Amino acid sequence: MKNFYLILLISFMSYESISQCNTYFNFKEGTEYEMTHYSGKDKVTGKSLSQILSVEDNGGVLTAHIKGTAFDKKGDEITSMNFEYICDDGVLKMDMNKFIPKDMFGSDADIEFEMEGDYLELPKSLEIGQSLKDGMIEGKMTMEGNPAMANMALSVKIFNRKVEAKEDLTTPAGSFTCYKIAYDMESSTKVMGMNNKVNMKGIDYVSEGVGVIKTESYNKKGNLSSYSLLTGYK
User: Fold this and answer.
1) Residue 154 is inside which H or E element, if any?
2) Nearest alpha carbon to residue 132 among 116, 114, 150, 119
3) If residue 4 lies in a helix (H) or strand (E), which one and from where to where?
């Protein structure tokens, strides 16, 4: 289950779209994206659906209000969340504070988060060899009635982001020309003095006018551990 949420996090963090502001993404109200998630052995592990509910224009700064819903491999809903993307002067910004769903620890738990994070950014134009800004989120969680969780700390860091190539991909949603963006990702969970750290390498394939078409996650040995494909777009 922890791995599923990590895959979901990467999928939602892999940008959606705003054609009025950012070259690669379509911030049009009503747009829907379906991503299907797979294990490294091509078995379906779940799906996620992102829906752009509304778009606001505040002096040229666009804010898209998005609903994300995650489903397990049987199609049953696991969780949903509302979040925002901002497009300012052509730069797409995602507030990383939005991507730790409270009910991943149980819908009945009385949980409070104190989170601080950067924006994960995507510029309005990409080119091979280009380096992109890092992103990070960190904070603490408290759970009433559970002293063991009182000092739990979470952090996710995405770094070494670089545009490596331009490739053509075909998925059930269509054929796309994509920029390949590689990055390193480190997630850390500290509970009762114990630190569980996971290091991964990721790749996002981003297509002009649509958004992310495919994501890949690799473990520290360089083996493919999971991937996601755009399987629906309307």
Assistant:
1) strand 152-171
2) 119
3) helix 2-13
Distance CA(116)–CA(157), nearest Å, equals 12
Q: Is 141 exposed, middle or buried (0-12, 13-18, 19+ CB in 10 A)?
A: buried
Number of domains forming the structure of the chain = 1
Dihedral (CA of 199, 181, 212, 17) sign: positive
pLDDT in tens, 93-152: 876 655 554 444 444 445 666 667 777 888 888 999 999 999 887 777 666 666 555 567
Maximal C-alpha separation, the chain:
52
Q: What is the CATH number of the domain that holds 16?
A: 2.40.360.20
- Is the distance from CB of 133 to CB of 144 less than 8 angstroms? no
Q: Where on the phi/psi map is residue 30: left (φ > 0), alpha (ψ -120 to 50), or beta?
A: left
Cβ atoms of 164 and 128 within 8 Å: the answer is: yes
Which structure tokens are listed for 122? 């995507």
pTM over 0.70: yes
- Structural domain span for residue 90: 2-233
